[in-house]
Amino acid sequence: MFKLLGLLGAAMWLAPDLARAAEASRPLDLTHHWAGYFSLTVMVAAYIAAMFEEATELRKSKPMLAAAALIWFVIVLAYRQQGGDGLAVAAFKSNLQTYIELLLFIMVSMTYLNAMEDMRIFEALKAWLVRKNLSYRQLFWITGWLVFFISSVVNGLTAGLLMGAVAVAVGKDNPRFTALACINIVVATNAGGSFSPLGGISTLFVWQHGMLSFTEFFKLFIPCMVNFLVPATVMHWVLPKGKPVISAEQVVLPRGAFSVMALFALTISLAVGFDMVLHLPAAAGMMAGLSLLQFFYFYLQKTGDKQTVDKQDVAKANYAMFFGGGDMNKALLGEENLDIFEKVGRLEWDTLLFFYGAMMGIGGLGYIGYLDAISQMLYGQFSPTLANILIGLSSAFVDNGTLMFAVLTMHPDIPPGQWLLLTLTLGVGGSLLAIGSAPGIGLLGQAKGAYTFSSHMKWFPVILLGYFISIGVHFLLNADAF
Questions:
Q1: How many domains does the chain have?
Q2: Which domain holds residue 193?
């Protein structure tokens, strides 16, 4: 009895401290705190600055990096004023780990793509298409189908620019064909990148966070194909008839080109295997694949024929030395193309750093409490279907990777079918405008004059029709996922 009373007394004495400890284990609600208002203002200003990158000539990564640093600075400062910053620091590290996994995955993928570009694999594909003496309509469909499948494993910008180069080369005397082909390529690229976890940043985010398994994404194959086919079928009837008169050079692939393609396929398989079998991050499999490429390049360096040097090699070596700042001997022996770290250095670092700023900034706003409030409004007041369709439409103006990370940070309680719907709408919603996705922006510069914002806008109703039909097909085919 006395022991029981003693325990009750100790519990009453410790109750205030236990309550304070429980309170300290929960994040603070800073939505109405000066730190919250400051962070929200900084993030909006940074995103506006990033959107006007072309007008201001200020790279988009700069304002986003500054915003991320300021947001987490004021968060930690606010927590210190309340007695401790341990929770805030742990939240920062959690967001940082998510970004590092994404960075490593993209770094390896882009390194392989740079290696294939140096080995002229994409140039050979372009030359092969141009040499086929196909009609305008045949080239329209071939470039669309090719980029639809290529973009499921290659980033959208690279795939779009590759097929865009074919469209520009073929349609140099026919701007109408070039414009229609570019619109088709943008739609097909975004659609193809939406049914694969490797197709883009937004799908990679969903896979990385474990919301969908690797194989579940392929349920979107037919809806994505429909999204591509609806506007393409309508555009087919206004395409010019006849065949273009063009000539193309013969591209000879260097030693090791097919082996690099095989190693890239093996690397993707390792990433999937590490995730599904070993339950390790997919980035771990990608890094294992990078080691294979490094060993293969070492083999090429050691087994290359260093005695056979023609005049063309000497000319390339002179160019590398005098204009590229390269080493004469390395260029003469072809070793500059076998440097892995040179390919890593050529990554789109501005984009990767932009995503660091966006992810850390959005993560900070989520930790403050703003994204929970938005989630309650979107997924509480609206149905999940309407919310996901509206978010998808907004991807015509806002980067889909940023939007997807924001939704993931909201933690909405929705079934797999709704995650698939969100993946679909965010992926294909960027096709509505020429500036809505990286392939569209890239082709605006590549096909300058023929493919413009207004030429894409003329087909907005048809692309929007494809957007809603693909959603309907998803509900029809994947009803069991809801």
A1: 2
A2: 101-298+419-481
